[in-house]
Structure formats: C-alpha cells, structure tokens
Amino acid sequence: MASTTASWTQDILIYGANGYTAELITELALKEGAKPILAGRSADKIAPLAQRHGLPMRAFGLDDPAQLMVGLAQVGVVLNCAGPFSRTAHKLAQACVQAGVHYLDITGEIEVFEDLATLSAQAKSRQVMLMPGTGFDVVPSDCLAAHLKRRLPDATSLTLAFQASGAPSHGTATTMAENMHKGGFVRRGGKLQAVPSAWLTRDIDFGSGPVSTMTIPWGDVATAWVSTGIPDIEVFMAMPRPVIMGTKLTRHMGWLLGSAPVQRAIKRAIDARPAGPDASQRAQGGVRLWGEARNTAGRVVTSRLHTPDGYALTAQTAWDIAKRVASGDLQPGFQTPSMVYGADYVLGFTGTSRSDL
C-alpha cells in the first residue's frame, strides 16, 4: 500500500503479540524495517518474541488502570490482537481514550463494535480514533457494503455473504466456541434483533454456482449500519447443508454447549490443533464475498469481491491501517474502515478484485 516506513512506526504497540495473527502482522512490520512495540499480559510469552526479532516489549494486564497507563506511555497507536475481544477491547479502548492513544483491533464480535461505539463522543473529545475490525473482520465486507450503498443510495436492505477456505485460528475458534450457544443477530429497522442460530438459509452464487449459506452474527450487522445507514442487514456464511442442520440443532442445546465442562472440552480440542493455517495454506486460500442491496421500489444491485486468505489479508490491512493512523491519516471518534479510507480501500491490496453484476 501507499504508506511507507518511518520513525513513527515505533509508536505502534501490538497487544496480544504472541497470538497467531499478531505474529503475521509483526512479520510484515519487520519486512518493512519497522519496530513496533510487542506487548501482552505475560512477559514469559512476549519476551522470547521480542528477543528473537530485536523489538521493544512491554508486559501489562488490563485490570489495573494505573498499570495500563504505564503500558500505554509514549505510544501513538494500539493494535489489539488479543481475543476474544469481549474480554479485552473495552478496557484497552477506554484506557486508550484516557491516554490520548488511537485504538485499533481485529475483532469481528458484534457486541464489541456496539460497545466501543458508545465511547465515540468521548474519543472525539480527546481527538482519538477508535476503529475495531481492521482485519478480515470487517475491512472487505465493510468496503463491499459501502460500495453497494454507493450504487444504490436509497437502499433499505443489505445482505452480505462470504465463502472462505481453510480452518480458523485458535483465537477465532475460541471466540466461536464461547458464542456458539448464544444464537445470532440481524438488524431490522436499524435495531439489533436476536435470532436463533442459522435463522435463515439461502443459496448464493459466489461465482462458481449456488452454494448453501446460513445467517451468522458477523460484525457487519453492527458496522454496516454505521457505514451505510441501511436499516435492515443480514450476513450469511457458506456452509455444507449437514453443518447447517447441525447448527440448527444447537438451538435446543444452548444450556449444554455453554456449560463449563463442554466449553473446557471444546477448548482443549482447539488447543490441540495447529495455531492457524500455515504459509502454504494461506497462499492457496482465498475468500469470496457477495453483497446485495435493495430499495423500497424493488431495485436490486449485486456485487462480488474476491480476496486472499482471510488471515493473510488481516495482517496486511491491520498493519496498513496502523501505519496510516500513526502518520495522522485518521478521523477522531468511532469509525469503520470504509468511513475513513473509502469503499475502494480493499482493492489496493494484491489479490483483491470486485465485480458488479
């Protein structure tokens, strides 16, 4: 992208730096000669990374406000990669606002977007930008939503969908596990509406023929409302029909799936798997996105967007946005990627393409 390495890259702090996606971001930074600060709760986990890469480090938790302020001293931008973000985002974002530090993360959790939006006025008063969702959640889909709004300015309903390859990282899988018993969300009349898991199903053509999809509580149910003002929003994900049927069955087992023993068993299974896709899998992977907007007159516009592997794209977009913010390319308050960098922002990354149908 257009951003170039400069001394201000030393003002970027990556929190949760020992995580799978954070390490991909750090690798990109190192290739550019940047020296971000690596941070996290455990010095034992952060120190080996910092020593290996020759980078500065800080170790601090999020429960002690005084310790948090020390950890954020002389930092310009925080990129939070420590998920599940329902545990980390509010405390870290609130501290960033108080310290005058810009806050970014790579969440896709609706509740986190909704929560951080409530800090917008306070952030504006401090000239601080809050931009959760600077990765695959939600850069490409947010840009697609903004593009569809541009094509149909009076749209009243927005449907987004994606088809991804590859297995999730530990962090993504853990977040999914902790929320699998909670059902989903759509937006109706500008308001979030709780719905059962796999509430709606639909066959969608991402470019190679129709595939089965189901509604999921993706971050755009929150962010696309902010970006576009379209009042009715649904997000679908491609899934095999047996998986969709199984997901529907979880509607009746929420109490069991959310129980401590089952959660522990699921997380043990997650921890036993690889941390995430390896370099070869990321290189071969890709994501297809599809979006549709409608107005009250019945006009429909549809677009597709193809991107590289979601984790590879996350590393690129999150690091690029961190650099942009560190160099002053920002807008104070709660923001989404397309609101600050435009509907075409994602097209600046190698391997992305968009088509209007």
Could you describe the 3D structure shown?
Helix 2 links the parallel strand 2 and strand 3. With 357 residues, the chain is α/β, with parallel strands linked by helices. The chain folds into 2 domains: 7-136 and 312-346, NAD(P)-binding Rossmann-like Domain (Rossmann fold); 139-309, 2-Layer Sandwich (Dihydrodipicolinate Reductase, domain 2). The chain starts with 11 loop residues before the first strand and ends with a strand. The chain is 40% helix and 23% strand.
At a glance:
By secondary structure, this protein is α/β, with parallel strands linked by helices.
What descriptive keywords fit this protein?
2 domains, Dihydrodipicolinate Reductase, domain 2, Rossmann fold, 357 residues, disordered N terminus, seven-stranded parallel β-sheet, alpha/beta, seven-stranded mixed β-sheet
* Global outline: globular
Helicity level:
40-55%
**SS-based structural class?**
alpha/beta
| Named CATH topology of the largest domain | Dihydrodipicolinate Reductase, domain 2
How many individual helices?
A: 15
Mean pLDDT comes to: 88
Our count of domains comes out at 2
Strand order of the largest sheet: 3-2-1-4-5-6-15
Our estimate of the beta-strand percent is 15-25%
Radius of gyration: 20 Å
How many DSSP E strands?
A: 16
Low confidence ranges: 1-7
Distance between the termini: 27 Å
User: What can be said about the biggest beta sheet?
Assistant: 7 strands, parallel
**CATH level 1 class label of the largest domain:** Alpha Beta
| CATH architectural category of the largest domain | 2-Layer Sandwich
